[in-house]
Amino acid sequence: MSIAFTFPGQGSQAVGMGKDLADAFAEARAVFDEVDEALGQKLSDIMWAGTPEELTLTANAQPALMAVSLAAMRAAEARGLDLASGVAYVAGHSLGEYSALAAAGTLSIGDAARLLRIRGTAMQQAVPVGEGAMAALLGLDYAEAAAVAEEAAQGEVCQAANDNAPGQVVVSGHKGAVERAIEIAKGRGARRAVLLPVSAPFHCALMQPAAEAMAAAFETVTFNAPAVPLVANVLAGPTSDPDEIRRRLVEQVTGTVRWRESIEWMASAGVDTAYEIGTGKVLTGMVKRIAKDMTGVAVNSPDDIAALLERLA
After folding, report:
1. Which of 54, 110, 124, 294 is the 20 to 30 A CA-CA neighbour of 86?
2. Is 299 exposed, middle or buried (0-12, 13-18, 19+ CB in 10 A)?
3. Residue 53: in which H helix or E strand, if any?
4. Do 147 and 173 form a contact (C-beta atoms < 8 A)?
5. What sign results for the dihedral spanned by CA atoms 99, 100, 104, 105?
């Protein structure tokens, strides 16, 4: 059996995240300093002393979540963690894919921060505020939710954006279409169907301008082969090819985050434990719902890092 490292996406952010890591580990502090320098902004001040509203802005939340994940990684590596020998796969939920790639050495921390700032800004600007929406459809499987989205579109964009776990699918698109999807889903037996408090309709065709912005940004960045394979969001399978990783990251902006299938694939490949590196326990909770033989463990604090290192010793 083997382990995987997973990295959280937007929604896991909280003011104060990573401060205990920075206080405990010089290597963690160095990551936050590196991200601040790469962005030309004290993002760490927003993370630790800002408002929830400021931190939740997409252009801040995305690099901030990556920074916490990489702070935990660098602290663990300084104390003996060797990713290549101890971990079978890395994967990240949406923006967490960038964290996974920085952890695996495909991207530098500075490049990951700059790319996520571009990504967050481009995603926010792709659709005027109020024109798009996302909704969680709970109690429907992916095929059912995709059929609901297709029926709701009616000439607009509405598609399954996140296949998070059994019975937990998010749809994204034009606001009117997403509102229609909520009503259709209720009629199809959804346990709950609600709009999500997001600032843009992520992972749907309306994000095409952001996909183009990322394709252009990637041309200026070096992608190395990862130390361990990435289980990519849009593939729900592994890749180690830098050119393919670049292509898949572009596709990911408008494509479905196939998280349920990604966890199922890792379970079928022998992964018995998925460590969620960074902040929060969202992915850890999903593991329990997706793969009954896989354990999810959140690695958020200095004590969590110590327990991880003990497991891998």
Report:
1. 110
2. buried
3. helix 52-56
4. no
5. negative
3-state secondary structure of 19: helix
Largest CA distance in the chain: 56
What does the chain come to in residues?
A: 313
Phi, psi for 33 (deg, rounded to 5)? -65, -40
CA separation for the pair 8, 99 (Å, rounded): 8
Q: Which residue has the tokens 């920085």?
A: 102
Closest of 310, 311, 300 to residue 28, by C-alpha: 300
Supply the residues annotated as catalytic. Answer: 94, 203
The residue with tokens 């926010």 is 124
pTM of the model: 0.96
- C-alpha span between 69 and 97 (Å, rounded): 11
pLDDT single digits (tens) 296-310? 999 999 999 999 999
Residue 51 tokens, joined: 């408002």
Q: Is 306 exposed, middle or buried (0-12, 13-18, 19+ CB in 10 A)?
A: middle
The DSSP bridge pattern shows strands 2-7 and 89-92 to be parallel
282-286 LR contacts (CB < 8 Å, sep 24+) = 282/8, 282/9, 282/11, 282/12, 282/93, 283/6, 283/7, 283/8, 283/93, 283/96, 283/259, 286/164, 286/165, 286/168, 286/259, 286/260
Please, what's the b/e burial string for 176-188 (b: 16 or more CB within 10 A of its CB; e: otherwise)?
ebbbbbbebbeeb
Asked if residues 43 and 64 have their Cβ atoms less than 8 Å apart, the reply is yes
Amino acid, res. 119:
R
- Residue pLDDT, tens place only, 271-288: 999 999 999 999 999 999
